Amino acid sequence: MTLSSWLKILRIYMALQTDGIVLKNERIKPLYFLLTIYCPPIADGIKAGQFIMLKVSENFSPLLRRPFSVYKSYPSSHPEKKKRGVLFILYRIVGKGTQKMTEFKKGQKVNMIGPLGNGFSLPPLPSSTPIILIGGGIGVVSLYSLAEILGSHYLYVFIGGRTKDDLLCEEDFKKLNTLKIFIATEDGSLGYKGTVIDLFLTQKKSFKRSQFQYIYSCGPVGMLKELAKAVKSKGVVCQASFEARMGCGFGACWGCVVKTNDLNTPYQRVCKEGPVFNLKNILWE
Length: 285
Fold this sequence. Notes:
Layout: H1 3-13, E1 16-29, E2 32-38, H2 40-43, E3 51-54, E4 66-69, E5 72-74, E6 86-92, H3 96-101, E7 109-116, E8 131-136, H4 140-150, E9 155-161, H5 170-174, E10 178-185, E11 192-193, H6 196-204, E12 214-219, H7 221-230, E13 237-242, E14 257-259, E15 267-269, E16 276-278
Parallel strand pairs: 8-9, 8-12, 9-10, 10-11, 12-13
Antiparallel strand pairs: 1-2, 1-7, 2-6, 3-4, 3-7, 5-6, 13-16, 14-15
């Protein structure tokens, strides 16, 4: 085996600190940007649900890196040449760090650490069994890369946001093997008026048991807590990707813990043991 082959294997199991090159950084909605980066070392190894820690400034303001789920990524072996080694980060302007990111220019180097955390596990189900995806706000981003991998599975996709300007990824989901897309906005500006969990509950009774076995979700903690109440049935497996503020991104600072029912390690780190957890293992305060 060649050295390059060994390096590719190591990248799958180890996080790397490496530079990427900005290919594009475009505003797609008033508060949302899509950042395209050429970075084969991370694109070759990252899995759906994992994340990166991005250095947003060349100086010390802000000092800490920012965690981001990867929206799409394509390995250097991808059949389409223009996609090889490319990854996409869809981000929302929420503070000084993400505001700084809007200044990234084509050709600029950006430093990243990744892949980090544990991603989604694929369902042990036949491809004829539909999968339910539930994303709230920016959380839907991590579900799209999973949806691409699920391939032949039929998908029911629930997308929620505060307003119609907070709804993301709908057009991309339409290109996949999606049975139906359900839309919710809290202000009623598009689709169902209410939260995405409210919408899910209105549709839950219409699903056959065979269509309600495996759920993937990502969104604010409050959304995941409400989802946990709705999926207590033993026959339902729900994996949830948690959002959290992070200091380091690899488990050293213990600044992003959640409480679980694991007797050996009741407090687990979103960045290390997560960000994806079995929702039924979480103990809510």
